[in-house]
Amino acid sequence: MKKLAWCLFFGVISTALTGSPASAQKNEALTREMREAVTTFLKILTPEQRQETALPYADLARFDWNFTPRARKGITFKTMSAAQRKAAMEMVRVVLSQEGYSKAEQIIDLENVLRVVESRPANDTYRDPENYAFLVFGTPGDEPWGWRVEGHHLSLHFSSVDNQVTYTPSFFGSNPGQVMADVPQKGKRILKAEQDLAFDLLHSLDASQLEKANLGAKAPNEIFTSNARKASLAKMEGVAMGELNAAQKTAFKKLIMAYLQRYHVTLKNQQWAELEKNGIDKIHFAWLGDQQPEIGTGHGHYYRIHGPTFLIEFDNTQNGGNHIHSVVRDLTSDFGEDLLQAHYEAGHKK
Fold first, then answer.
1. How many C-beta atoms surround the C-beta of residue 330 within 10 A?
2. Which of 137, 27, 150, 63 minimizes the C-alpha distance to 337?
3. pLDDT, tens only, 270-321
4. What global pTM score does this model have?
5. By C-alpha distance, which of 316, 25, 62 is closest to 190?
6. What is the enclosing helix (H) or strand (E) of 151?
């Protein structure tokens, strides 16, 4: 039965890869759902709020993203009515899986934890669960358009180009990585799978594989690609999936899927199909820092998953290895750039 389910799963992915009518219909369905959710949100805004929220698709603000607490363009929860907040979160719900949506909600809620941990007043605006901003770029419809939600440790970007939806860059962070303070959220680890499955893979490596995967004893203080418009690393480093045995490959795929299953099933399958097309065995796993999960001064670890067109970075070094940053990047089509180029090239050929 498990084998059948596995075959069915990869059958769905293979269908997506071939670009069959079924996969096209799934993309059209998600595109329509996203368009309807965003249109509903825009309709219930006041004219003043809509002016604050809606920008042209070509506006360079689309590429100005960050995951730190800062002032942002767009309308935030703070100035929304209850109905507007519900509509805003429905936009998020449409494009994420239930698991991904729950992670997003919990990341926002961690601002309340940080207020307690850092002894901030209830009206503090630096650690603020209401300071998450929504922007819409372009007009939801047939022409390219997109939207984002962004605040501390959450930056999600979606574009729609010719019935294809893109979801990168996509940043999920967690401070603390494990809630240790005496608060209702005590013990919570929002990015537990992303951390634990990576250690499982690391600990499964033999000596020669570990020598390739391990890039150094000290982890960086931040993800290497930071908030750059275009993600780029000089080369793929670490151990390639093609060098792993069957059990290790399963562990590696499970780790990748911990990220992909944050998103709507169409986006998950679409991304996996792209990874297969570009060569699953070429995807590399690299590690820096502690090889055991420890919290305390001087501790921390980092890993990345790097393929020909795909990059995941996970960094847990700040606050003594209890402050996580994780990002998923498309090395060719962040912000839908490749799709947009193809869209305009096709237009010129007509």
1. 21
2. 63
3. 999 999 999 999 999 999 999 999 999 999 999 999 999 999 999 999 999 9
4. 0.91
5. 316
6. strand 145-151
